[in-house]
């Protein structure tokens, strides 16, 4: 199964709200909209793209996963969404006056080529903004897997010549290699106050690495996984919510 395949509805019900947490930082980085053309790459179910639209940007979304596009078109019908994925996008050079890629460059097969593609489709001097996770709730899911006695694969890594350090410094260096001008990176931390049912929707729906792992389990292991999930949620819940701290690296640069 391809990563993120078929997870549009589950993502919309879970991680979409978390990933939209960079919205203020991205809007601030882009400057005054003035009806300028903005491309949101990896627009998912459309939450950020619609926020940009409401801030008076002329927004186009770009998303490879059909179920994500379907949710976006239903929930945010005023956003035009085009099928496409980095590192090759279906747009002419200098087609946009701003480009965003929120939690996208940590998933692509060639980050530097993808960074160059982002710069290619932007007019000279246009703001480019992107984010990656430097701290995600992976510890939460790893604890669940360990308690359930499940052996999880370490996951696929990019070849050494394609990968980059998933730190603010590593992110900035990769973007500079990809042709971003004056790229600066700042870390943004916040707490996701997640309802346990929302977290479970992400796992059951196959979202991210934990969801893909759960989808591949047999009946008995799924029951063990669910039991461990309930235990960990109970231990970390405050007034019925699971408090998960996150840190994103938010990068801002310019097209040449």
TrEMBL record:
<dbReference type="GO" id="GO:0008757">
    <property type="term" value="F:S-adenosylmethionine-dependent methyltransferase activity"/>
</dbReference>
<dbReference type="Pfam" id="PF08241">
    <property type="entry name" value="Methyltransf_11"/>
</dbReference>
<protein>
    <submittedName>
        <fullName>Ubiquinone/menaquinone biosynthesis C-methylase UbiE</fullName>
    </submittedName>
</protein>
<dbReference type="InterPro" id="IPR029063">
    <property type="entry name" value="SAM-dependent_MTases_sf"/>
</dbReference>
<dbReference type="GO" id="GO:0032259">
    <property type="term" value="P:methylation"/>
</dbReference>
<keyword id="KW-0830">Ubiquinone</keyword>
<dbReference type="InterPro" id="IPR013216">
    <property type="entry name" value="Methyltransf_11"/>
</dbReference>
<keyword id="KW-0808">Transferase</keyword>
<keyword id="KW-0489">Methyltransferase</keyword>
<feature type="domain" description="Methyltransferase type 11">
    <location>
        <begin position="39"/>
        <end position="125"/>
    </location>
</feature>
């Amino acid at each position: 199964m391809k990563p993120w395949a078929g997870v549009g509805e589950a993502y919309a019900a879970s991680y979409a709200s978390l990933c939209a947490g960079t919205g203020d930082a991205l809007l601030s980085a882009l400057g005054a909209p003035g009806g300028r053309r903005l491309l949101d790459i990896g627009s998912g179910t459309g939450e950020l793209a619609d926020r940009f639209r409401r801030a008076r940007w002329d927004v186009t979304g770009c998303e490879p996963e059909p179920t994500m596009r379907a949710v976006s078109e239903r929930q945010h019908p005023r956003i035009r969404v085009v099928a496409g994925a980095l590192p090759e996008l279906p747009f002419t050079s200098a087609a946009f006056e701003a480009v965003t890629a929120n939690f996208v460059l940590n998933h692509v097969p060639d980050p530097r080529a993808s960074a160059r593609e982002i710069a290619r489709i932007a007019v000279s001097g246009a703001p480019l903004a992107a984010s990656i996770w430097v701290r995600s709730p992976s510890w939460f899911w790893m604890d669940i897997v360990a308690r359930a006695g499940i052996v999880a694969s370490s996951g696929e890594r990019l070849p050494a010549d394609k990968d980059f350090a998933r730190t603010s410094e590593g992110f900035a260096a990769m973007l500079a290699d990809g042709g971003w001008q004056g790229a600066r990176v700042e870390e943004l931390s916040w707490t996701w106050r997640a309802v346990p049912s929302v977290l479970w929707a992400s796992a059951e729906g196959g979202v991210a690495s934990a969801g893909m792992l759960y989808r591949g389990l047999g009946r008995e292991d799924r029951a063990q996984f669910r039991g461990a999930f309930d235990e960990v949620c109970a231990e970390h819940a405050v007034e019925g919510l699971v408090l998960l701290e996150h840190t994103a690296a938010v990068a801002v640069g310019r097209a040449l």
